[in-house]
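Can anyone check this?
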Amino acid sequence: MTLGKNTDILIVGLGLIGGSYADGLTKGGYKVRAITADKGDIDYAVGRGMITGGSDEVTADTVGTADIIIFALYPHIFVEWIEKYGHLIKPGAVITDVTGVKSAIVDKVQSILPDGVEFIAAHPMAGREVSGVKNASADIFRAANYIVVPTERNTDGAIEICKQLGHILGFKDISVLSPEEHDEMVAFLSQLTHCIAVTLMCCNQSEGLERYTGDSFRDLTRIARINDEMWSELFLLNRDKLLYEMEQFSQAFSQLRCYMIKGDREGIRQMMRTSAERRRLFDKID
């Protein structure tokens, strides 16, 4: 199967990321339907031209015609959905996801899918500190990174379809990692950064700090406006790898603190030079 303009695309979960997928695919000339819990979100997306239609109920007619299904759900809800409704997916369909952890769910989902249905995992490294379809836009994918996460069960064709989705949605870089590699990477680049932002907002209870802060603190803590339901699940599903990265961070922070105690300016400057050199590699270039 190839991804053509007549491909029947269904999105399950019409929140920020699911809605942004819908917006990007529709702008790319594809016809997109959706299933989501809130009928109001369907009505909003239809009214904005993001989808052609949808439902707040899972039915055989809605699911069974889809060629590609994109799941934008919390990890445990994704697994539960497949357990309950996976039998409705037609043979030959390809499904993918947007979840932030892979090792804990990919094998499980692949093992319970009906014969002839292929799950190729993916992770759009994009988002906002707000949620919901009303905040969705394909613009969040521009200059962002997209990771395809295959296993030995995946075919070359499904992997290419997943990559094609990334190109259509406008991601800057498309990479391929194993589930294990993905979870090691995301523990550092995403989950640890959220831990740091949350800790910063919890370590000082002085009132009125918002009246004095500059952009550096606002930039560093932007992601502290966090979805606690989703992120606590992601943290615990990737607990061992995240704990390892937290320990590495703690050791580096302790090193900087040690330099401060000793008054070792050169040690401080060396850490700063290393930091500045590495940070330049992460600057987004449109």
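Reply from J.R.: I decoded it. The mean pLDDT is 95.
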